[in-house]
Amino acid sequence: GMDPGWSYYHSNPVTRSGNVQRVSAVADPAATWDRLFSSFTPPSAGAPMAPSAPSRKPLVDHVLASYKSLREANTNLSSDDKRRLDAHMEMLSELERRVSAAPVPVGAGCAKPTRSGRTWAALTRRDRDAGAKPRSPAESIELHKLYTDLIAAAFKCGLSRVATLALSEYSDTFSTYTGGWHGLAHEDGQVNGQPIFGDAYQKVFEHVVLDLARKLDEDEGGGKTYLDNTLIVWTNEHGARSHNPVDKMMITFGAAGGYYKTGLFVDYRNKTPKTLMGQRAGFVYHTGLTMNQW
Fold first, then answer.
1. In contact, 142 and 188? CB cutoff 8 Å
2. Which residues contact 50 (CB under 8 A, 6 or more apart)?
3. What pLDDT digit, counting tens, does each position of 132-152 carry?
4. Burial, 177: exposed, middle or buried (Cβ in 10 Å; 0-12, 13-18, 19+)?
């Protein structure tokens, strides 16, 4: 997405261990295309799968004895060194899995998208403080349709299985409102703030979330669509009040390959209301599940 600082994960993602570090993001559709499609040639429809790699001794087995000796017998090995050693072994194991894995089937819907030559700058808080205005709704819609094109194409061609889009209040508000967007968020309970937010959220839902769902709602084979085999989640930081992540809504499309039962409205909130104290004393809210439980 255009705000490349949102995603973090463990340095050893397989075991969920090691230092937590930022996951690098691509902040422009052209750069995203370069990363995914610059050297990609779609196979012809119905092309046979590549033969499986011959059976052989796994790569990590060649160094397993040395690894165990170093990991378990060396008392001078620090905890950080042990984590780095474990991460290296997991990297070898993951490399082995990727090399040996059968190719991802490429559906009939796989097509190489056109690379956009336009450059899209991401605004920062400093830019906005200096007077820069966010993109117009039409420009934000144009930009994010490029992103949804790339996401849908990457999924259909087996080039990616996970994608994240984070919308920035500095670049893309999907609104013609030119004042301070953050300040407007604090007027969520005021009459003048509600229609502005409502209109902006409707545009995001229609032109980003629903647009991606439509592009994935194509036959993948076996009576399933790409959307059937995907899970799209849309949420934001606002619950019943701005910046308060309680009473949060999570809207989903797709069934994640049949894992989820669709067409349901589920309310996990505790129906016994609580009253907020402190700065927003008197505000009534309902607790529910944590994000980890979601």
1. no
2. 103
3. 888 999 999 999 999 999 999
4. middle
